[in-house]
Structure formats: C-alpha cells, structure tokens
Amino acid sequence: MRLLVLGGTRFLSRAVAAEAVARGHDVVCACRGESGEVPDGARLVRWDRAAARSAPPVGPDGTGTPDAVVDVARHPSWVRAAVAAHPDAHWVFVSTVNVYPDSPVGGQTAATAAVRASVHTDEDLSSAETYGAMKVGCEEAVTAGASSSTIVRPGLVVGPDDPTGRFGYWPERLAEGGPTLAGGDPADVVQVIDVRDLASWLVDAAERGTPGTYDAVGPPTAIGDLLAQVAHGVDATPQLVWVPSAFLAEHGVEPWAGDAGLPLWLPRPEHDGMMHRDATASYEAGLVPRPVAETARDTLAWLRTDPDAVRTGLSREHERRVLAAWQPR
C-alpha cells in the first residue's frame, strides 16, 4: 500500500507512519519537517500546508497517487484542499470526541449521538466548542469529497511521546508515592486510548478501506480502578485521597490540564458524556486497547529518559496545600 500521512513527525501521526513502515508499506510523510524526524523507512516530502492549501504529490519527483491518506488536520480549508487533490484514495480522518456537545449522558455511540453544528471556515481554536465544530466541518469535507473514508473520533490519546502531559502526570506522580490528591468520585467513569493501539487501528482502516464513523476510546473504567492500574504499571502502592470537585475548585484546582490542573478530573455530571462513550462498534471493527498498566509503565519509562517531555498539572506544593486543607474534613 502507498500511504500518505499528512504529518508524521509528532505523536499520533508519527506513530501511524511508524506502524505502516513496520508492516512494509510505502509511506510518505508530508509536512514542514520542523517538529521532529519522520520514522526510519518513511520518506519526507517537505510541505507547508498552511501556505500550500493543497495536498502534495506522493513522491518527491511529483509523481504517484496514494492508495490511502491519514489526516489529523483541524482546519476545514486544509482538509477540503487535500481531499480535492486525492479524492480517489481511501481517507482515514482523525477527528475528536469534541464533536459531541458536552452532555451529562454517558454511553452514547458514534452512530446515534448528535454532533455540533459544523463550521467550514478556519477559526480561532481557543475553545473546545469551536475546535469540535471545525472538526465536524473537516469530517464533512472528507465524506463529501473522498470516494471512501473512515472517520475516527478519539478521546484522550495517551502513551509515550504525548505532547500534552495529561496522562503522564499520573504515572510520574504515583511512582513518587505518598498521599496523592485525586478528584471527584472514584466511581466516575473515564476512558483513555494508547497512541500505539490507535495508530495500529488507523493503519488497519487504511489497509482495509474500512467505511464508517467510530469513536476511538478504551473501555469505560471507574477512575479509581484506572489509577489503580496506573499504580500497578509503575510498581507503586497508591495512597489516593479523594476530594470532592467543589472543594478542589474552592482551592484553585482546575480540571483536566494546565499549571493548576488535576489531569483526568472533570466536574460531574456535566462532563459524563465526554469520558464515557460506547465504542462497541469500534472494538468489533478491530480496535484492541492494551492494559492501562502497560501504557503507564511505558509512559513513565519515556518520561524518565526525556527531560524535555511536556508535563502538566498542579505543582506538588499546591497539592500539599489542598491535602492539608482537606485533612480536617
């Protein structure tokens, strides 16, 4: 298979290129080449998508047509131009669960859940709402312009090389030991998907020409159980201190990410739908999530070898202050 990866130097798109090379495919990565190196065995075509607004040729000599394309773009105009350049390829478009409006209803499926009204112009990506709406616009550009397509909507993608640090906070923190701040209710449901499992499934979709729209998430798991699995993966004995959301907010702890954030914690029930998708159809179509303990182990190993890896989450001093304030309760 001749596979065109639009990207190929960072996290998911790089993992896709590496997986496809390992399977013996002819892989071209089209990007500026400024965010890192493409995997060994892949060919780099330097291309500034923002300037070109069109897909590059598959070969550096200007020849060739891809059998499949994997695209992770956020800007509808970029996707429209790329699909118009290679409409006969099978398109595997990586969207997001942010296409779904925030909802307290968990267990929804990609086939039946409502999505945001689409935005087909390139807007500021500062809000989750606009980001999700633009991704809907990108999805519509793919389904309208490509002869066949797979639309994949990941939730929280985790694992080695994660540029967000949202999951990596937990293997690192739990490995340190001691009383550890945890947010909300240990029964709150969360889902994560290892980047390597997602990449493998995207290459499967490219090879098979899998049709349809799918959520890409791991099994719904109580956050208490998920953190226990993380602790197991890093050989730690967790000492989790569960603190209600209202108390966290009162003490300056923010949900999800950021310098004051507590990763994986989201206020409930208003965000139940975001972290609890029914992905049965995805598993039936071949998505196989690995154990969270394995992801945690490998993520910690990567963090320990890369001092420049992105880290997010509240400081240890902030954590200690919150725990001290909560102790009398």
List the helices and strands and how they pair.
Elements: E1 2-6, H1 11-22, E2 26-31, E3 43-46, H2 49-52, E4 68-71, H3 76-85, E5 90-94, H4 128-145, E6 148-154, E7 156-158, H5 169-176, E8 179-183, E9 189-190, E10 192-194, H6 195-208, E11 212-216, E12 221-222, H7 223-233, E13 239-243, H8 245-250, E14 254-255, E15 261-262, H9 280-284, H10 292-305, H11 316-326
Parallel strand pairs: 1-2, 1-4, 2-3, 4-5, 5-6, 6-11, 7-10, 8-13, 14-15
Antiparallel strand pairs: 9-12
Helix pairs in contact: 1-6, 3-4, 5-7, 7-10
What does this protein structure show overall?
The chain is of the alpha/beta class. The protein folds into two domains: 2-159 and 193-216, Rossmann fold (3-Layer(aba) Sandwich); 169-190 and 220-276 and 290-326. It is built from eleven helices and 15 strands. It has helices spanning 11-22, 49-52, 76-85, 128-145, 169-176, 195-208, 223-233, 245-250, 280-284, 292-305, 316-326, and strands at 2-6, 26-31, 43-46, 68-71, 90-94, 148-154, 156-158, 179-183, 189-190, 192-194, 212-216, 221-222, 239-243, 254-255, 261-262. Helix 3 (76-85) runs parallel beside helix 4, helix 5 crosses helix 7 and helix 7 packs across helix 10 (292-305). The longest helix is centred in the middle third of the chain and has 18 residues, at 128-145. It is globular, with a radius of gyration of 20 Å.
Quickly describe the structure:
The protein has 329 residues and is α/β, with parallel strands linked by helices. It contains 11 helices and 15 strands. It starts with a strand and ends with a helix.
